[in-house]
Amino acid sequence: MRRVTAWAPGRVNLIGEHTDHTDGLALPMALDVGVRLEGEVGGDRVQLRSADAPVPVDIPADGSSAPSDGWGRYVAAVAAELHALGRPPVGVVGTVSSTLPQGIGLSSSAALEVAVAVALLRAADRALPAVEVVRACRRAEHAAVGVPSGVLDQAASVLSRSGAALLLDCADLSHEDVALPDGIAVLIIDSGVTRQLEGSGYATRTRELGASLHVLDGRRPADVAVAELAALTAGMDDVPARRLRHVVTENDRVRATVAAFAAADLGTVATLFADSHASLRDDFEVTVPQTDRLVDLLKDNGALASRMTGGGFGGAVIGLVHADEADAVAEATLSAYGRAYPDLRARTVLTRPGAGAAEQAADVLTP
Ligand code: ADP
Ligand code: MG
């Protein structure tokens, strides 16, 4: 029996939140934790066990039928998308293991999808352009859970390069590496407030933003200047106007953050992160009091910059820190947060940028 292995990382978004579903800009990076799949090639079914899920998955290798709930939906949806792209329905029997916490906005679902895609491609000796696999996994996420999420998670998991963040244009998946200044680490702290994308206001926000887009005459928010906003939103209802203002200003902040990193101007990065968080709190309304508090506590305890990250409604926050101070900042922040919210279990997730899946699977994810 021939064996296949596959690995895909989770991701954290440095800035550019809720810009992806209107084809905007974001600055994610891959993590050094993710999802691994190991299996044997053969048969015509995909049969997987996961240490992190009680029910095993057993689906036809062409993805033609899917379970009605659980993680098998993601596996079946990826198999179906790859089948539609011409992958022969070769089966895999194996196990999924993960070093990535689920459901806190670090994209375990995308890491699972990408790991399954790499394993299925390797099993069938098929290669596809990396960006095609990104799009297939994004369609799979949508098919699996019905959430109209953007392409950011899958793109970051596939296209990131080790040691760098990824400036991503979600319109065409064009991307470039953005080096972080020397000696700077990214601290991720989970608020302990459970985020459930399927049950959250994600779809509501997308709809509310959608109600504002007609004023752009077909342009995407990323191509609108911040100075145009006042005129564009004059006469618009308050909610869609604020949703649009968040997305236009957030795209602008992505470009400004890349420039500030290039100039090693961390003071400007700090202002941009603070503005991003305030915009997510006041205009897009996806923060919760606990993540607002954690962002403040990170700054109070030595972080150079901090903001919420991911879809919001709980989940994680990030801080940029001097690498040699990361542990001290994390410890002080966690203990202050524990005093404020003794019932929540917050935790530090990690601090290093990792390699995207394509860097490790160049045999099946081609340029
Ligand atoms: P996030 O992507 O932010 O971690 P989601 O709610 O989008 O949160 O995805 C989490 C879901 O992904 C889990 O409920 C599960 O179905 C699936 N999943 C993620 N990692 C694993 C794993 N190691 N084993 C099985 N299923 C997983
Ligand atoms: Mg997810």
User: What's the total count of β strands?
Assistant: 13
The set of bound ligands, ions and cofactors reads: adenosine-5'-diphosphate, magnesium ion
* Count of runs of 4 or more consecutive helical residues: 11
Counting structural domains, the number is 2
Apparent shape: globular
Radius of gyration: 20 Å
SS content category: alpha+beta
| CATH architectural category of the largest domain | 2-Layer Sandwich
CATH topology of the largest domain: Ribosomal Protein S5, domain 2
Question: Could you name the ranges where pLDDT drops below 50 across 5 or more consecutive residues?
Answer: none
Instruction: Please report the distance between the alpha carbons of the first and last residues.
Output: 29 Å
H and E order: EEEEHEHEHHEEEHHHHHEEHEHE
Strand portion, in percent? 15-25%
pLDDT averaged over residues: 95
Percent helix, as a range, is 25-40%
The largest pleated sheet is described as:
7 strands, mixed
Q: What is the class of the largest domain in the CATH system?
A: Alpha Beta
Tell me what the structure shows:
The protein has 367 residues and is an alpha+beta fold. It folds into two domains: 3-177, Ribosomal Protein S5, domain 2 (2-Layer Sandwich); 180-351, 2-Layer Sandwich (Alpha-Beta Plaits). The chain is built from eleven helices and 13 strands. The protein has helices spanning 72-84, 108-123, 130-145, 152-159, 202-210, 229-233, 238-262, 266-282, 289-300, 326-340, 357-360, and strands at residues 3-15, 25-41, 45-50, 53-60, 92-98, 128-129, 164-169, 174-179, 184-190, 305-309, 316-322, 347-348, 365-366. Strands 1, 2, 3, 4, 5, 7 and 8 form a seven-stranded mixed beta sheet that branches. Strands 10-11-9-12 form a four-stranded antiparallel beta sheet. A two-stranded parallel ribbon has the order 6-13. Helix 2 packs across helix 3 (130-145), helix 3 runs antiparallel to helix 4 and helix 9 (289-300) crosses helix 10 (326-340). The radius of gyration is 20 Å and the shape is globular. The model has no long low-confidence stretch (mean pLDDT 95). The chain binds adenosine-5'-diphosphate (ADP) and magnesium ion. Adenosine-5'-diphosphate (ADP) binds next to strand 5 and helix 2.
